[in-house]
Amino acid sequence: MQRHEQQVRATVLGMLGPVAEADDVAQEVFIRFFRSLDNFRGDAQLTTYLSRIAINLSLNELKRRQRAQKRFLFWQRSDTTIPDPADEHADPARMDDQQLVRQALQYIDADYRSVIILRLLDGYSVKETAEILDIPMGTVASRLARGLDKLKEVIVRWKAM
Amino acid sequence: MEPNNIKNLLLRSITEPMSAAEQEQLRAALEVSEELRREQEQLTYTRELVQQAIPAADPGFSQKVLERLQKGRKEVALVVQLFPRVAAACVAVILALGLFLYFEAGSLSTDALVGLQDLSIEEAVALTEY
After folding, report:
1. I need a labelling partner for A136 at 20 to 30 A (CA). Which of B26, B77, B89, B99 fits?
2. Could you list the residue ranges that cross the membrane (chain B) (predicted)?
3. Of B11, B42, B61, Cβ closest to residue A156
4. Who's near A101: CB < 8 A, 6+ residues apart?
5. How many domains does chain B have?
6. Residues B42 and B76 in one domain
7. Structural domain includes residue B121
8. ipTM of the complex
């Protein structure tokens, strides 16, 4: 577990951002893995298998968060939108580089985010990333390029503040 | 070359290997465009930031996972242990209610179950009007 802990935590933190639930989700990845040990056929590498669980659980958490936000907005009847990187909620001036990049990742689409995390942070090849996300290799390359461009825009904007 | 194609080439160069011809095209474009050079610098910086975003090790992580696993097992064991008793208690309550109903109403019909067995037609009409 210790060998894979950091990679799983990096994946989940990248997907969900620096929030309290990220640790719970990272723990849940290993719990799911232990519970499904009988189903683990060993034809996938353990790291790939864990990354797939981590991405799926993170996407579930993002959906849950979206539903909760919708309910909240319904009751509040407000027109609140996702905070702009320039607003005080994000407060980039107080962040170190790691916090900054994790926070900036939250402002790009989850489809792009997952590719960036798997390719650049976890170091998977295009083929492995495509297998984990179940998408064509061409889509991985295009999402990575577009995602990195969008991420760059957010970071440059924050750094200029 | 079209500016969009150069931009795509630049984006690809940050994350993928390129052919010698593509590298040459990009090099030529970078030589004449300061804006492109700045963009390349920013993209490279962004890539490096992402690559460095590995969280510090959490010494208590494995312990927390094991505790949650054990807690889950205990809960399942408790449910398995309590299930026969809870099921027996439910059956006893259902039987007692059935017997009570049978001795009170003299039958276990649907009317008796919903308490309508002694209702007259006038009372039933009054209920529908109500």
Report:
1. B26
2. 76-103
3. B42
4. A151, A155, B46, B49, B50, B52, B53
5. 2
6. no
7. no
8. 0.77
From chain B, pick out residues whose CB is under 8 angstroms from the CB of A101.
46, 49-50, 52-53
Of the candidates B123, B101, B124, B121, which has an alpha carbon nearest to the alpha carbon of residue B112? B101
Domain boundaries, chain A: 2-159
Mean pLDDT of B102-117: 78
Answer yes or no: do B12 and B44 share one domain: yes
CA A131: distance to chain centroid? 17
Q: Chain A closest CA to B87's CA: distance in Å?
A: 27
Report pLDDT digits (tens) over A99-146. 888 889 999 999 999 999 999 999 999 999 999 999 999 999 999 999
Architecture of the domain spanning A2-159: Orthogonal Bundle (1.10)
Residue B41, domain extent: 3-51
